[in-house]
Write a structure and sequence with these properties.
Blueprint: E1 12-15, H1 25-52, H2 59-87, E2 92-94, H3 95-128, H4 133-136, H5 139-165, E3 174-175, H6 182-188, H7 194-228, H8 232-260, H9 269-293, H10 296-319
Parallel strand pairs: 1-3
Antiparallel strand pairs: 1-2
Length: about 325
């Protein structure tokens, strides 16, 4: 029996989107199109910069390039459909399409959680075990960690999505959201969702608690190590290497917790939609900016790239 087909009569869901005000839609379309383009340019540019700049061939920047790939995939999974929904009159999505969208949301959200914890461990090794950094954080280990997180998020997504779509849906079929998220879908199920909510809580906790623990413990050791440093310059350098990651962690976990950790999410649907836009669409745009603006290595690589392009252009003009 297919997922959700036991006594399910709903074949399509209606996504209400962000607004029903016609005069707001062109402005929102232009805004989100700009955000999407900046996301693509920023993340793809950062990936190319890390790939072509030898000084950036380190574990930290390898993990950062993986984060950029994740951000491109995340934004590309939700932003184009949001843009279409702002212009189209038909805002329906098929039952299977809704399941796929939820699976992608689970995959990208969980992967970012796990990747941020791996990056916290990388900073722990770099600051607390600097002499062993390249031995511990080898390329082989980094690749294995990324592959392991991919396996975990795939399993988690299958379980989370199956937990929602195995329930019967017999109407209504209107989702007050711009995407198929778990809380609004459970609200539409025409059976008791107590067990599904418990499973959701257990699966979510099995991912978030270990990842948050790794981040907290890593930074506890990092803070202790920094406090023992006698040089203010060394302390400043250590803090600067962690500042970008801490900013990314705060942005992501802050918005996610505000959406999902609420006594009654249905009473704050408009508020949740805005926060969901933030962590699925805006954060992928901000991540490359957060990791570049105050990063001396990235700035130096950008300047070196600009100098090479300028020199190449001058040479070509000279040949003419």
């Amino acid at each position: 029996m297919a997922l959700g087909q036991n006594h399910t009569t709903v074949t399509r869901f209606i996504l209400l989107g962000l607004t029903d005000q016609a005069h707001q839609k062109p402005l929102l379309f232009a805004l989100f199109l700009l955000v999407y383009l900046v996301t693509l340019v920023g993340n793809l540019g950062l990936i190319d910069l890390i790939r072509t700049s030898a000084p950036l061939h380190t574990p930290m920047y390898f993990l950062l390039s993986v984060l950029s790939v994740l951000d491109v995939c995340n934004s590309s999974s939700f932003t184009p459909r949001l843009l279409v929904s702002l212009l189209a009159t038909d805002r329906s999505i098929s039952f299977s399409g809704c399941a796929v969208q939820m699976a992608l949301l689970n995959i990208f959200g969980t992967e970012e959680c796990l990747l941020l914890s791996v990056m916290a461990y990388d900073r722990f090794v770099a600051i607390c075990r600097p002499l062993l950094y390249h031995t511990i954080m080898s390329k082989h280990l980094c690749v294995r960690l990324v592959l392991a997180t991919c396996a975990v998020v795939t399993l988690n997504s299958v379980l989370q999505t199956g937990n929602v779509f195995i329930l019967p849906y017999c109407g209504p079929n209107i989702i007050d959201h711009y995407m198929c998220d778990i809380p609004p879908l459970l609200h539409l199920a025409c059976s008791d969702t107590a067990t599904a909510n418990v499973i959701l809580l257990v699966l979510s906790a099995s991912v978030t608690l270990p990842t948050i623990s790794v981040i907290v413990v890593s930074y506890a050791y990092i803070l202790g190590t920094i406090c023992r440093m006698r040089s203010l310059q060394a302390q400043s350098k250590a803090f600067s290497t962690c500042a970008s990651h801490l900013t990314a962690v705060s942005l992501f976990y802050g918005s996610v917790f505000l959406v999902y950790v609420q006594p009654d999410p249905q009473r704050a649907s408009a508020y949740n939609k805005i926060l969901s836009v933030f962590y699925t669409i805006v954060i992928p745009m901000l991540n490359p900016l957060v990791y570049s603006l105050r990063n001396k290595d990235v700035k130096a690589a950008v300047q070196a790239r600009g100098l090479r392009l300028h020199t190449r252009g001058m040479c070509q003009k000279g040949l003419w």
